[in-house]
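Batch manifest, entry 17 of 40.
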Amino acid sequence: MKRTINKRNTKNARAASKLLRAIYIIICALPVLLTAIFYALRPYTAVMDWIVGNISAPVREFLGLLSSLYPFSMMEALCTVAVIWLIYYLIRTVVVTVRRRGKLKILSKRILMIAVVALYIWGLYSWLWNSGYFATGFAARNGFSGNGVATDELVSVTRLFADKANEFAVLVNRDGEGFYAEDRSETFAAFADVYHNIASVFPELGGKLYRPKPMLFSWLMSRTGYTGIYFALTGESNININAPGVLMPATIAHELAHQHGIFAEDEANFVGIAACVTSENAVYEYAGWLMGLMYLSDALSTADPGAWRDIGAGLSQEVNRDWQENYDYWQSQKTVDTGIKFVDNILNAVVETAGDTVDSVYDSFLKSQSQELGIKSYGACVDLLVQYFMPK
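Output type: C-alpha cells
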C-alpha cells in the first residue's frame, strides 16, 4: 500500500514538474512570439494602421487615464524602481552564483530572467508605439507634399515667424531685467486648451488630453540634452522643468502631439508648433513662433545665409535675449564646474559620454524604426511649416 502511494506521489510530482516546465517555456516564449509577429507584420502599412487604431491608441489612452490619477510621473517612478531592482538583482546574482553549486546553471537562469523581462517590455513597446512608425504618417494623412520647398518660400515663412516672435515677445511676463518670467505652474495648467483651435483644422487632433508631468530627474534630462519624453507604456507626457521656460509651452505641445498619435518627431514638432501659434494663449503662441523660428533659421542659414542675416538683424531685444538664454543654458549642461580640476575632468567626461551615448542610442532607435533622418528628424518639420504657413 505504501509503495503504491509513493509511486502515485512520484508520478504526481513528475506531472507537476512537467507542467511547471511547460509554464516556464510559455512565459519565456510569449514575448519572443509577440515580437516576431510584430516584425513580420511591420512591412504592411495597412496592418500597422489597423494596429495603431484598434490596439495602440485605445490601450495608450487607457494607460494615460490611469497615470493621470497621479500628480507625479508614473514613468519616472517605474524607471526608478526598475533601476533599483536591476542593481539589486545583479548584486544578488553575483552572490548566489559564487555561493552555490552549479554556477553556470544558476547564472544562465538569472540572465534568462533579465532577458525575458526586457523582451516583454520591448514587445509591448513595439505594439503600443513602434507600430506607429510604420503606419501612415500625419503628413501623408493630411495631404502634405514630400517634394521639399523653394528657398523663397522658406525665406517668406521664416520672416513671418520672426515678425510674430517679435510681436508676442512683449506680451509675456518678464522680470526687472527683461528675462522671461512666466509662472511654470500656470503654463502646465493651460495645456488642456492648446489643441482646441488646431483640431478644427485637423480633426484627428481633437479628443481628450492628459496633463503633462513635471520630471523629478529633470537635471538628468538636461545633462543628456532632452526637454521632454512621451512614454507609451504609461501614456504620459513628461517634461524637463529645469530647461528654460520660454520654450516649455512648445515642449508640452510637442509631447501632447504624441498623445494624439503623432509618432514621427518631425511631425510632432510641426503639430506642437501649429497648436501653440493657434492657441490664443500668448505664452504658448510666443513659444510656438520662437521654436518654429529656430528650426526655420537653421534651414535658412544653410540655404540662404544672406537672407537669414537680414531677418536675424530685425529680431527684437526680447527675442534675442530669450534665444541667448536658451542657448547658454544648454551650453552650461555640457560641462561641470566644481572648482576641483580632476573632479571636473572626470565628471565632464561622464556627462559627455552619457550625452553622446543617449544621442547615439536614440538615433539608432529612430533609424531602426524607419525614421531615416534619425535624431535630425527634430529639424525636419521645416517643410511642413513652410507648406502650412506659406501664404496661399
